[in-house]
């Protein structure tokens, strides 16, 4: 059962959603989770179109952080710290490319590690995650081969892969993030409570005839020795 997790490194509601999706991944290890890009502000031009200027972004976005912090299971957002920073609110492009490069040079777990590391740097440590030095520091804290990641980050195919994700967003008609698409036909939209995410995935699995836990028996039962109530019972 394939789960596409659409998110942006600068998306405040994606921070608590990623935390919950890690619990989902642990509970249902048979899920194939694929990380997809969504750009709330690809470059500063998009910010200017939406907010009138790049400078106007941070005061507005801080209000989003307050709502997201209430939604976050551990209330991790450092809002006051961010108010004291003088850098302009980061754009999405470099962070999305960094996470995509991790996925392409390693695997989806590497993508997730860089994605979460960038979000931690922004929302808790209040760092400018569009800054390449900050991004590289995040990557170096993971188990990813840094030189392989660096080569992939600089490879034009990485940006193209992000753009293909953005095209997929349009094809699906996704309007915002976080968003979960299951088996390319079911949408879980927004930062849902943990129990809602799990109940929805279990419902979809039932409808799709997919077994989330345990093993699927192939063939027929045959004679065996089984442990029943602490005792061996052999056929």
Automatic annotation (TrEMBL):
<keyword id="KW-0676">Redox-active center</keyword>
<dbReference type="InterPro" id="IPR036249">
    <property type="entry name" value="Thioredoxin-like_sf"/>
</dbReference>
<dbReference type="InterPro" id="IPR001853">
    <property type="entry name" value="DSBA-like_thioredoxin_dom"/>
</dbReference>
<feature type="domain" description="DSBA-like thioredoxin">
    <location>
        <begin position="2"/>
        <end position="201"/>
    </location>
</feature>
<dbReference type="GO" id="GO:0016491">
    <property type="term" value="F:oxidoreductase activity"/>
</dbReference>
<keyword id="KW-1015">Disulfide bond</keyword>
<protein>
    <submittedName>
        <fullName>Thioredoxin</fullName>
    </submittedName>
</protein>
<dbReference type="Pfam" id="PF01323">
    <property type="entry name" value="DSBA"/>
</dbReference>
<keyword id="KW-0560">Oxidoreductase</keyword>
<keyword id="KW-0732">Signal</keyword>
């Amino acid at each position: 059962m394939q789960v596409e997790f659409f998110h942006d490194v600068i998306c405040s509601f994606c921070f608590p959603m990623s935390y919950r999706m890690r619990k989902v991944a642990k509970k249902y290890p048979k899920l194939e989770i694929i990380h997809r890009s969504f750009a709330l502000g690809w470059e500063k031009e998009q910010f200017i179109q939406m907010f009138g200027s790049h400078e106007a972004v941070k005061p507005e976005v801080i209000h989003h952080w307050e709502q997201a912090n209430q939604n976050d299971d551990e209330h991790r957002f450092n809002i006051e710290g961010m108010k004291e920073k003088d850098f302009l609110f980061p754009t999405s492009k470099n962070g999305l490319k960094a996470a995509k490069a991790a996925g392409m040079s390693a695997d989806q777990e590497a993508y997730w590690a860089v994605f979460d590391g960038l979000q931690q740097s922004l929302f808790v440590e209040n760092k400018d995650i569009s800054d390449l030095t900050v991004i590289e520091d995040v990557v170096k804290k993971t188990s990813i081969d840094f030189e392989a990641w660096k080569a992939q980050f600089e490879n034009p195919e990485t940006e193209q892969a992000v753009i293909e994700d953005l095209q997929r967003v349009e094809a699906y008609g996704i309007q915002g993030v976080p968003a979960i698409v299951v088996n390319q036909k079911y949408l879980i939209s927004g930062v849902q409570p943990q129990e809602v995410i799990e109940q929805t995935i279990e419902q979809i699995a039932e409808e799709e005839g997919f077994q989330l836990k345990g093993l699927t028996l192939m063939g027929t039962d045959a004679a065996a020795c089984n442990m029943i109530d602490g005792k061996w019972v052999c056929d």
